[in-house]
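Convert to structure. Protein one:
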Amino acid sequence: MWTIARLAFKEILYKKIFLITILMSIAFLVFYGTATQFAAGKMFEGVGNPGMNDPYFLLRKNMLSTQLLGVGLYFASFITGLLAILSSVGSIASEIESRQIDTLLARPLHRRSIVLGKFVGLGGLLTVYACALFIGIILVNQLMGGPYMSVEVTLQQVLKAISLFALQPLLLVGVALLFSSMMTTINGGIILIILYGISFIGGFVEQIGVLTENDSLVNIGIVSSLIFPLDSLFRKMTIFLFDTADDPISFASQGLFGSISAPSSFMILYTILYGAAALWLAIRKFEARDV
């Protein structure tokens, strides 16, 4: 298994898509840092010397700073998700299509070792990437935001949030391996991207439903989370980071990237079991597949 994990790690590391993603991530951080610095310098221009005891000023500051950080983290989640999908959905299917899988199957390896090895290799690298990008966004906010646009977060909040942020690529890799063991790369990629979109659109719909007290919209959001619970991880992550559990104005301060309807601990457990079940099914499907 560890040999396959090392091979999978090196394979994605040397692919052009990973190099391009790294370069574009650096460009994104530079752009995001510039925007944050500009916002910090211009957003409150002309308001004089506002006092931190002014309730209106504090509310405006919290709304703008948390929404700016939320946008950065949402886009970071989007980049990580796409990289996880594109790098793992063809990890088995492409090798079957090109007959490269014959080289691995000719060795005394269990098929489950191949699937688990790819999960460890791909998941490990993507987890490191997700953590690095998350920390980069936080550092940009803290260093470039100044006293007005930086969000006050503690180390405990950051650690709790990053643990859920890092689970997102692991969930995607597990599901991608399932599709890769069942169908072609293109079909698996299309289905997974659609599920990805359903999850996040459903999350937005649920937040709007809670805000407008529309039970139909809330139920649509819940169903989408059960179909593919990726958005639940992001919503729970923002609650941990901004420490807004049971805060009635959290949605107003964070906008659509926050959460007025906090995912429960059961939902996080469901997400973990969902990923584990997808990985188990990937092993079973690959073992039963005639290649």
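Protein two, convert as well:
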Amino acid sequence: MRFDVVSLFPEMFSALTQWGITGRACEQGLVSVNLWNPRDYCSDSRKTVDDRAYGGGPGMVMMAKPLEDTISAVKAAHQTQNVTSGPICLLAPQGEVFSQKIATDILNYGNLTFICGRYEAVDHRFIERNVGLQLSIGDFVVSGGELPAMTMMDAVIRLIPGALGDGESAIQDSFINGLLDYPHYTRPEIYENLSVPDVLLGGHHAKIADWRRHKSLELTLKLRPDLIKSARANGLLSKEDEQFLRNL
């Protein structure tokens, strides 16, 4: 998987490329993160990437040309390295809210270019001419696209075969089957008078699987009932699941 990231603060991505699961994935060559700073493609001595908004208003707007020149450099690198260019994605409040399904879609692209906006906005002409995908991490505003980009990249990298120590971990994550994950426990068996559920100690794999499925359904119904509706609409619930939900 290859990510190309256009950012005014490329140093921030060391948190992703040098630490934890994502850092190991980069070290193993399972993913490459290529950072592009629009200031490197400015023609003026001040490396200007933003200007005041036409019509007035607070904040500055990222200019189209430095971003377009950066994208041209990204595409040239793809051509030189025989890489098939994937979509260009702008991190923006108006974008589609990121999900596990979108993470899987991005992995299937094989390559994605993120545009990390800053300041008040990005010149809309750049968006119209270049951006094919807009994504958001929720209905709130952060200072730039870097943190959302890293969040999405982390979610995608976890899905790459070999990125996790246990290949089953990604399969069993929340949202993979449309539901929240079941509760997890580890040693000690009793902590502050709270015991691990007996079923998890018995070694009966079928009973454990049933308990985990039921707990997943129970937690999802309690905390994210919208996911139950979505799972039902997508045919992810069995007759046994529906009966259990009715009993709840």
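The two ends are 42 Å apart (CA to CA). The chain is about 40% helix and 15% strand.
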